[in-house]
Specification:
By secondary structure, the chain is of the alpha/beta class. 31% of the residues lie in helices and 26% in strands. The chain has 16 helices and 30 strands. The chain starts with a strand and ends in a 5-residue tail after the last helix.
């Protein structure tokens, strides 16, 4: 007699009977697939079934082949695996076919016909392998996003803060929450390292499966414009999408604001429900793209969910949230009018998920703030520093305006711009800094492969258009020390651009660098 057993591999559950293995989903048997007796090759999947719904041409062999795994990085290909050739910006995956074959690949998924592939190796051709990778990843991991509430947050600014405000609300009502974003990924209280704002589709679907298998009920994720345009999030079942705002950023990739807006709009075309900030100029466009129920938010425009009586202080932001004719007092621990929009976005999404408004208000108040988002360090001298991730013109303008609402002395701005990114925003940010600060110190952000001094000169062009006194200090540590040395009682030092980041990228190296650590060291014994 052969007894069945259940085991788990790659975050997917399987029912094993003899040499056959059936995929389980919600306790139901989907299909049987072959299972080798070797542990490393425990599960084999039929490639034709994985590619269901994906259009492809068979150049060589047959799609009806069993594979052990699939990879888009040739270095990770396993014996009897599938290699997906991705055409990237710096290299072409098709060049690494020999390496994949050497490692034992039995199938290739390409974007064009290839030559000199050994007989017996299957070669399939699709029009877009990024789309194919996303969909076969979703199939391979058993469509995990369909088994949880998935809330996607997109916009130039406010994504991270909005996701953590949502987490506070959902935590309060007993949900187990997953976070996918810029600072970190989380499964409940477990923190996982984040490599990018939105992971590549294979890693993303694997993370979804792990979250589901660890009883996550709701996933709140930042959805970057890159991930939408590059199809990393194709196949995800988004229950709610949130639009925060759209301002200049990533034009090094998108080239125009219209392209950038169109990429963001893709999220709303596929989400079941949407929360749209109608105070933003792009709000109407996002609303037009939305296919399901739309809940609008705003402060200045007519909207479903609004705010009145906004009061910003150094300790936070208070306002009344208006919903269906009722007024709910809210207090946030993060100062700034922009915080109100983040709170309204999170509240709107939770309303669409059926969370009682009273629980939403309590959850917003419970949120302590997010690392590197208007994070304050105070000095016994009576001055304070604020560290923020603001790295766009709109972001810098928001945090400077917020600081000006409570600064009693001089506002000292320490900021720069990243290398190998949109150069057109550098003089714009310089002019914003000069217009809103009392003193500017232009310094390095992440120079990457560029000469840091040249980046500072680009920013300087904008500062020169104002009457603001300024200086350029290439070394970021020295710039922070200078700001602290000149600060007096009542002054505020805004250190913008890196926020939560704990590194600095140079042409030849990456070093540890944390703005919070540096300003505390600069305050020394005066740090509170």
């Amino acid at each position: 007699m052969v007894f069945p057993c259940i085991f788990q591999e790659k975050w997917q559950k399987y029912l094993v009977v003899g040499d056959k293995c059936g995929i389980l989903k919600n306790g139901l048997l989907l299909r049987f697939i072959y299972r080798s007796r070797k542990r490393k090759e425990a599960v084999r999947v039929n490639l034709k079934q994985l590619l269901e719904g994906i259009s492809y041409e068979v150049q060589q062999g047959t799609a009806d082949v069993e594979i052990s795994d699939f990879q888009y990085d040739s270095r990770k290909v396993e014996k009897d695996g599938l290699f997906v050739c991705i055409t990237g910006f710096q290299t072409d995956g098709h060049k690494y076919i020999p390496m994949a074959l050497e490692k034992g690949a039995v199938a290739l998924l390409c974007e064009h016909r290839v030559e000199n592939v050994p007989e017996g190796v299957t070669v399939l051709v699709t029009e877009n392998n990024r789309i194919a990778l996303a969909l076969l990843s979703d199939h391979f991991y058993g469509h995990p996003s369909a088994e949880m509430n998935v809330i996607g947050v997109t916009g130039t600014n406010g994504k991270t803060s909005t996701t953590y405000l949502m987490k506070s609300i959902l935590d309060r009502i007993g949900k187990k929450v997953g976070i996918i974003g810029t600072i970190e990924n989380r499964i409940g209280d477990e923190v996982l390292k984040a490599e990018r704002t939105t992971p590549e589709s294979k890693e993303l679907q694997a993370l979804f499966r792990r979250m589901k298998n660890e009883d996550v009920t709701d996933v709140v994720m930042e959805v970057s414009s890159h991930s939408l345009d590059l199809h990393r999030v194709d196949g995800i079942a988004f229950d709610v999408a949130i639009f925060t705002n759209l301002t200049q950023d990533h034009l090094d990739y998108h080239k125009t604001m219209e392209n950038y807006k169109a990429a963001k709009g893709m999220l709303f075309a596929r989400a079941a429900k949407s929360v749209i900030n109608m105070d933003d100029a792009a709000g109407a466009y996002m609303k037009e793209q939305s296919k399901g129920e739309v809940l609008t938010i705003g402060v200045d425009s007519k909207a479903d969910l609004t705010a009145e009586g906004i009061d910003v202080s150094a300790d936070g932001t208070a306002f009344d949230m208006l919903w269906q004719g009722k007024r709910y007092p809210v207090h946030l621990h993060t100062p700034g009018r922009f915080s109100v929009y983040n709170a309204l976005g999170a509240a709107g999404a939770c309303i669409l998920l059926g969370v009682p408004v009273e629980e939403i208000v309590a959850g917003l108040t419970a949120n302590p703030g997010v690392s590197g988002r208007f994070q304050t360090v105070r000095s016994k001298k009576g001055c304070q520093a604020v560290v923020d991730y603001a790295h766009t013109p709109d972001g810098l303008e928001n945090v400077l305006n917020t600081a000006n609402e409570f600064v009693k002395g001089k506002l000292i701005a320490v900021f720069g711009c990243g290398g190998d990114r949109d150069r057109t925003k550098r003089p714009i940010m310089g002019e914003i800094g000069g217009r809103l600060a009392g003193y500017c110190i232009i310094t390095s952000d992440n120079p990457r492969t560029e000469d840091p001094a040249k980046i500072l000169e680009d920013v300087e062009v904008g500062v020169k258009k104002t009457d603001c006194p300024y200086e350029k200090i290439v070394d970021r540590r020295e710039a922070i020390q200078k700001a602290v040395a000149m600060a007096e009682a009542g002054d505020v030092i805004l250190i913008a651009g890196k926020g939560h980041e704990t590194y600095q990228i140079f042409p030849d190296k990456t070093i540890h660098f944390d703005d919070i650590e540096e300003v505390r060291k600069a305050f020394g014994e005066d740090c509170l």
